[in-house]
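Structure in, sequence out. Go:
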Protein backbone atom coordinates (compact mmCIF):
# COMPACT_ATOMS: atom_id res chain seq x y z
CA UNK A 1 0.00 0.00 0.00
CA UNK A 2 1.32 3.44 -0.90
CA UNK A 3 0.75 6.20 1.64
CA UNK A 4 0.80 9.81 0.63
CA UNK A 5 1.53 12.90 2.64
CA UNK A 6 -0.99 15.71 2.85
CA UNK A 7 -0.74 18.24 0.05
CA UNK A 8 1.49 21.06 1.28
CA UNK A 9 3.35 23.74 -0.67
CA UNK A 10 7.05 24.67 -0.91
CA UNK A 11 9.56 23.74 1.79
CA UNK A 12 6.76 22.47 4.03
CA UNK A 13 5.87 19.90 1.36
CA UNK A 14 9.41 18.55 1.16
CA UNK A 15 9.68 18.44 4.96
CA UNK A 16 6.32 16.64 5.27
CA UNK A 17 7.26 14.06 2.65
CA UNK A 18 10.67 13.41 4.28
CA UNK A 19 9.07 13.04 7.70
CA UNK A 20 6.48 10.58 6.39
CA UNK A 21 9.18 8.48 4.71
CA UNK A 22 11.39 8.49 7.80
CA UNK A 23 8.52 7.42 10.04
CA UNK A 24 7.47 4.67 7.65
CA UNK A 25 11.02 3.37 7.26
CA UNK A 26 11.60 3.26 11.02
CA UNK A 27 8.14 1.98 12.02
CA UNK A 28 9.42 -1.59 12.12
CA UNK A 29 11.27 -2.06 15.45
CA UNK A 30 14.00 -4.08 13.73
CA UNK A 31 14.64 -1.21 11.29
CA UNK A 32 14.69 1.32 14.13
CA UNK A 33 17.16 -0.79 16.14
CA UNK A 34 19.39 -1.23 13.08
CA UNK A 35 19.36 2.51 12.35
CA UNK A 36 20.10 3.51 15.93
CA UNK A 37 22.47 0.63 16.69
CA UNK A 38 25.30 2.35 14.85
CA UNK A 39 25.01 5.42 17.07
CA UNK A 40 24.54 3.41 20.24
CA UNK A 41 27.72 1.50 19.42
CA UNK A 42 29.73 4.71 19.00
CA UNK A 43 28.57 6.63 22.02
CA UNK A 44 28.11 5.85 25.68
CA UNK A 45 25.74 8.53 26.99
CA UNK A 46 26.50 7.69 30.62
CA UNK A 47 30.01 9.11 30.08
CA UNK A 48 28.93 12.27 28.24
CA UNK A 49 30.46 15.33 29.87
CA UNK A 50 32.47 13.31 32.40
CA UNK A 51 36.16 14.03 33.07
CA UNK A 52 37.05 10.79 31.23
CA UNK A 53 34.97 11.90 28.24
CA UNK A 54 36.66 15.34 28.28
CA UNK A 55 40.09 13.73 28.35
CA UNK A 56 39.23 11.53 25.35
CA UNK A 57 37.84 14.52 23.47
CA UNK A 58 40.99 16.51 24.16
CA UNK A 59 43.17 13.63 22.93
CA UNK A 60 41.07 13.23 19.79
CA UNK A 61 40.45 16.88 18.94
CA UNK A 62 43.28 18.78 20.63
CA UNK A 63 41.32 20.38 23.47
CA UNK A 64 38.14 22.21 24.23
CA UNK A 65 36.36 24.32 21.66
CA UNK A 66 37.43 27.94 22.26
CA UNK A 67 34.46 29.43 20.38
CA UNK A 68 31.04 30.06 21.90
CA UNK A 69 28.92 26.99 21.24
CA UNK A 70 25.19 26.31 21.43
CA UNK A 71 24.38 22.67 22.25
CA UNK A 72 20.76 21.61 21.83
CA UNK A 73 19.53 18.12 22.69
CA UNK A 74 16.01 16.74 22.40
CA UNK A 75 14.40 15.03 25.38
CA UNK A 76 13.02 12.30 23.14
CA UNK A 77 16.26 11.67 21.23
CA UNK A 78 16.24 7.92 20.68
CA UNK A 79 19.84 7.93 19.48
CA UNK A 80 21.47 9.44 22.54
CA UNK A 81 19.59 10.10 25.72
CA UNK A 82 21.36 12.51 28.02
CA UNK A 83 20.40 14.13 31.29
CA UNK A 84 19.95 17.80 32.06
CA UNK A 85 23.12 17.64 34.15
CA UNK A 86 25.10 16.28 31.21
CA UNK A 87 23.82 18.99 28.89
CA UNK A 88 24.63 21.62 31.53
CA UNK A 89 28.28 20.48 31.56
CA UNK A 90 28.81 20.99 27.82
CA UNK A 91 29.41 24.79 27.98
CA UNK A 92 32.28 24.14 30.37
CA UNK A 93 34.17 22.60 27.45
CA UNK A 94 33.54 25.51 25.09
CA UNK A 95 34.21 29.22 24.85
CA UNK A 96 32.60 32.06 26.78
CA UNK A 97 28.93 32.54 25.95
CA UNK A 98 28.35 28.83 25.34
CA UNK A 99 25.00 27.34 26.32
CA UNK A 100 23.45 23.90 26.54
CA UNK A 101 19.71 23.28 26.46
CA UNK A 102 17.43 20.27 26.56
CA UNK A 103 14.53 20.85 24.18
CA UNK A 104 11.37 19.23 25.48
CA UNK A 105 9.53 16.85 23.17
CA UNK A 106 11.89 16.69 20.20
CA UNK A 107 14.14 13.89 19.09
CA UNK A 108 17.37 13.53 17.17
CA UNK A 109 16.12 15.42 14.10
CA UNK A 110 14.81 18.47 15.93
CA UNK A 111 15.19 20.80 12.93
CA UNK A 112 12.88 18.54 10.92
CA UNK A 113 10.43 18.09 13.79
CA UNK A 114 10.09 21.72 14.91
CA UNK A 115 12.09 23.96 12.55
CA UNK A 116 10.59 27.30 13.60
CA UNK A 117 11.20 26.72 17.31
CA UNK A 118 14.73 25.39 16.85
CA UNK A 119 15.70 28.14 14.42
CA UNK A 120 14.34 30.62 16.96
CA UNK A 121 16.55 29.15 19.70
CA UNK A 122 19.58 29.38 17.41
CA UNK A 123 18.96 32.92 16.21
CA UNK A 124 18.16 34.13 19.75
CA UNK A 125 21.46 32.66 20.95
CA UNK A 126 23.34 34.24 18.03
CA UNK A 127 21.88 37.66 18.88
CA UNK A 128 22.97 37.29 22.54
CA UNK A 129 26.45 35.99 21.74
CA UNK A 130 29.18 38.42 20.63
CA UNK A 131 31.34 37.36 17.72
CA UNK A 132 34.69 35.83 18.67
CA UNK A 133 37.20 38.63 19.20
CA UNK A 134 34.44 41.20 19.79
CA UNK A 135 33.44 40.28 23.35
Amino acid sequence: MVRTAPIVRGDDAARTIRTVHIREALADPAHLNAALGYYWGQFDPTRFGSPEWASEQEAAWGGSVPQPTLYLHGTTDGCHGVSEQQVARVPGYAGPGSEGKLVDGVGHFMLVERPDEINGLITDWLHRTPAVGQA
